[in-house]
């Protein structure tokens, strides 16, 4: 890593110039591993310059962990000469420290024109894309110089926009982006301490002139709002940072509770999530919101769409509370919908049934197994009664027929308008639609249920629902056809 710098003229370590309390505020030990490669994002400002030297000092100390440091610099090319000077300064820092140096030149204006994003958002997205790609290639983590003032501003900006406990937590010390670990060890250190660290250590740094412009929201908060609040509470920054710490702790606990509820009461079925409304109504609204957030996170992971906002979460939460209607459909944002049927709440991306299907079966011996839409497995098994004997064990997913009484070809198909079935044990016939309603089959599942019909179109069997009075086993039966399906009507 090169010779350790950071010594004053009288030979004192910079570490000695900071109080023990200042060093205790650093969040290093739990978040970094021995011999971990860390790419330090150094803009040239006092915060990132201080971060690099702090990590070097800590890594070289007996109490620290050995780190393999590298420097990455992002030139946004927005301030021309200033940007070039900052790049050269950071390049010299890497050279003097003897660590690898990585640099990229961003075309932020082109990104704005192409994506329609604002300057700050476009610059941030390009910056993080570079850092995560570089870290992936280098098998490294990324250290960022966000400090206590940044944290306080972030929390206040979220309060102004309207946020919940999760937003009040501000930035996390560690988070992952595209599987890359991003570390912010300075979130409890005020900027004034970082400037002092650089000045006492003789470390050159640059001041970004754009930080003085109130054109950007963050600068308005920093230059106008925070000074006004500090007149009321001189320790406003510390107070907001404490609020963030407490909020993150509370949010972590509540999310743990919500995850336990998700595990115990929510059934995942493909890309759907189901929960009984009776279970839902037992939950506190705070857990309801977080449970919806977990459900949407699960569903949106299948669609790669953005996380739903507070209004969408509240729309779903209030709909889940409704008991005035047995069935309804709520179409939410991001393609996620809520379907209530027979006391069951289903979060799904689909509100329409599957496509119709039909398969003609001439010879079940040639093809005894069929895979139907929705992953339903259908199996035919023929037995000669007089030769082998056969004990019929019928259920809602298994039925036995007199093979010689079946009119071929048979057809396995989805339901059609006007379908009726002569149910075994009942006089006359009944509409399939009414049977499905009586059985309380969710509407989204009905068009995907298979029906077995004979050559005359008579429905022989509706797996999961009922069998007909046709082709029953009798004393004269010689061949039995036993048909079974996998269980496909899910319940929770």
From TrEMBL:
Keyword Nucleotide-binding: yes
Subcellular location: Cytoplasm
Protein origin, superkingdom: Bacteria
Catalytic activity: cytidine(34) in tRNA(Ile2) + L-lysine + ATP = lysidine(34) in tRNA(Ile2) + AMP + diphosphate + H(+)
Residues the record lists as binding ATP: 43-48
Pfam families, A to Z: ATP_bind_3, TilS_C
A GO MF term: tRNA(Ile)-lysidine synthase activity
Coiled coil location: none
CDD domains documented for this protein: TilS_N
Key words of the record: ATP-binding, Cytoplasm, Ligase, Nucleotide-binding, tRNA processing
E.C. numbers: 6.3.4.19
Domain Lysidine-tRNA(Ile) synthetase C-terminal: 410-483
NCBIfam families per record: lysidine_TilS_C, lysidine_TilS_N
Function comment: Ligates lysine onto the cytidine present at position 34 of the AUA codon-specific tRNA(Ile) that contains the anticodon CAU, in an ATP-dependent manner. Cytidine is converted to lysidine, thus changing the amino acid specificity of the tRNA from methionine to isoleucine.
Family: Belongs to the tRNA(Ile)-lysidine synthase family.
Entry-linked PANTHER family: TRNA(ILE)-LYSIDINE SYNTHASE-RELATED
Entry note about domains: The N-terminal region contains the highly conserved SGGXDS motif, predicted to be a P-loop motif involved in ATP binding.
Identification of the protein by name: tRNA(Ile)-lysidine synthase
Species name: Marinicrinis sediminis
Upper classification of the organism: Bacteria, Bacillati, Bacillota, Bacilli, Bacillales
Gene giving rise to this polypeptide: tilS
């Amino acid at each position: 890593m090169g010779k350790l710098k950071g010594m004053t003229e009288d030979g004192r370590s910079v570490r000695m110039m900071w109080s023990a309390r200042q060093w205790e505020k650093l969040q290093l030990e739990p978040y970094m591993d021995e011999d971990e490669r860390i790419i330090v994002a150094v803009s040239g400002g006092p915060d990132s310059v201080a971060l690099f030297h702090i990590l070097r000092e800590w890594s070289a100390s007996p109490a620290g962990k050995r780190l393999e440091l590298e420097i990455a610099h992002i030139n946004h090319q927005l301030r021309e000469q200033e940007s070039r000077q900052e790049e050269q300064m950071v390049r010299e820092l890497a050279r003097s420290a003897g660590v690898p140096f990585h640099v990229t030149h961003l075309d932020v204006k082109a990104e704005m024109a192409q994506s329609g994003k604002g300057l700050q958002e476009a610059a941030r997205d390009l910056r993080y894309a570079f850092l995560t790609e570089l870290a992936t290639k280098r098998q490294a983590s990324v250290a960022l110089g966000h400090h206590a003032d940044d944290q306080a501003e972030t929390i206040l900006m979220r309060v102004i926009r309207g946020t919940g406990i999760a937003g009040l937590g501000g930035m996390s010390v560690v988070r992952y982006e595209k599987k890359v670990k991003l570390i912010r060890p300075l979130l409890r250190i005020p900027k004034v301490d970082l400037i002092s660290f650089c000045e006492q250590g003789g470390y050159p740094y640059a001041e970004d002139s754009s930080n003085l412009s109130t054109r950007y929201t963050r600068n308005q908060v920093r230059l106008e709002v925070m000074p006004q609040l500090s007149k009321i509470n001189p320790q406003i920054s510390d107070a907001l940072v404490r609020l963030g710490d407490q909020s993150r702790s509370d949010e972590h606990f509540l999310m743990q509770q919500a995850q336990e509820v998700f595990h115990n009461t929510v059934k995942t079925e493909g890309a759907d999530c189901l929960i009984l409304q009776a279970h839902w109504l037992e939950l506190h609204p705070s857990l309801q919101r977080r449970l919806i957030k977990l459900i949407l996170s699960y569903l949106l992971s299948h669609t790669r769409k953005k996380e739903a906002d507070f209004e969408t979460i509240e729309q779903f939460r209030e709909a889940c509370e409704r008991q005035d209607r047995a069935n309804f459909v709520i179409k939410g944002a991001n393609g996620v919908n809520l379907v209530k049927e027979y006391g069951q709440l289903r979060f799904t991306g689909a509100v329409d049934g599957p496509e119709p299907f039909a398969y003609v079966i001439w010879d079940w011996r040639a093809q005894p197994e069929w895979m139907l839409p929705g992953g339903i497995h259908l199996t035919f098994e023929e037995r000669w009664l007089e030769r082998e004997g056969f004990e019929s064990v019928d259920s809602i997913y298994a039925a036995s027929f007199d093979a010689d009484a079946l009119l071929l070809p048979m057809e396995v198909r989805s339901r059609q308008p006007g379908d009726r079935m002569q149910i075994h044990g009942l006089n006359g016939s009944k509409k399939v639609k009414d049977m499905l309603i009586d059985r309380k089959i969710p509407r989204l599942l009905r068009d995907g249920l298979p029906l077995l019909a004979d050559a005359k179109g008579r429905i022989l069997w509706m797996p999961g629902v009922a069998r007909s009075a046709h082709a029953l086993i009798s004393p004269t039966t010689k061949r039995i056809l036993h048909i079974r399906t996998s269980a496909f009507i899910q319940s929770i």
